[in-house]
């Protein structure tokens, strides 16, 4: 039996520990590993809340900021008990709940300031825990994004953690654009402040653009035994230089990635999707679920400033109950540059889509929260267009209804490492209209399993997006046979974790599948 440790900022196998797709991956991959007969431990920060009422395992002491720090490991009850999987969190008073999904902090003046402090402390505690065999003798440690890369730094440079060099370290890139860049020194949130006892290898660790900073995403790329991207096409994209906004590639790290590829350390494997134990929602319950969600949001004190807008959205839903739309397209995503840049860059593009929908009695539904400027943009357009329904909140019931009852899923991501939304929509026989980038290339085939647009420049892409959208509407209303074929083809695609994890064993873990 092989023994794995997953180290991550998110883990959706436990309650209230997810902000994005990383949480899904860290939930699903260990389940497949356990199904193969191997053992997995998963550890995340406690964020000042996840340890409450859970089982205290042990206290660990370690050097941090030139002093002896103490953290406590707790075993956490999962949403679903699965043999050979154990979930842990690390509690320390300085690892707190952030203002993004109660996990991450938004520090606009000094990006990653608070998060870097939290995750450096977390990584130090995990390094000490591994050294003390808290998870048994490990064969593989699987790290996820920049939040965990300081484990590799400690393995490489800290004399107390040389024992970690006997373990295979896998590093997964979920989103290369978020890199965890911090100063080397002269700042409370700096590498020297975290580890003042170490002589820092400035030359090897410096960011390629900011010479006085460490790039924690780059640390993972340079020091891991193998680097994993969450789709094959994203691997190819990030080895090319970015040219914002026409193309998003390596974001300054393309040379490190090309070097890793030359060393056969860079591997692209498509994420999977869950096809079992799916939450089923009653067909036709979308509007009821929407009204219920709006009333629940209105009770939340932090939603007070959105109350007028929520009521405005509720009024739209009431009208739609009386006179349902003949075509529904939808998007579910965090409101960020990655997901909605096309609309922020060109509000006229979104308005053109809404005009085309108006002509066929269609609506566009968007559900999400995120950057204030994106929320404001979508709120403003919602007031302007009756057929734009913007749910500025989070509701699993509404999301499940959207995936079940919409006709077309829109996913115009500026870039996409893999994407899970298109898989969830396709699982429900809902075609997707996607930007031909990253993992969306690997999952949606134009006019076969969905619709896809591209272009050399952002202006070309805007035009092609609108053209393909018009094409999709035309097929839906004028060629039912072709539409039904696309729907069936979409549903027939199976992106299983079982298949992906077999590739993990072969290419990442270097362990024979039993």
Automatic annotation (TrEMBL):
Domain Starch synthase catalytic: 4-258
Keyword ATP-binding in record: no
Reaction it catalyzes: [(1->4)-alpha-D-glucosyl](n) + ADP-alpha-D-glucose = [(1->4)-alpha-D-glucosyl](n+1) + ADP + H(+)
Domain of life of the native organism: Bacteria
Keywords: Glycosyltransferase, Transferase
Domain Glycosyl transferase family per the UniProt entry, residue ranges: 327-463
EC number: 2.4.1.21
Protein name: starch synthase
Organism, scientific name: Meridianimaribacter flavus
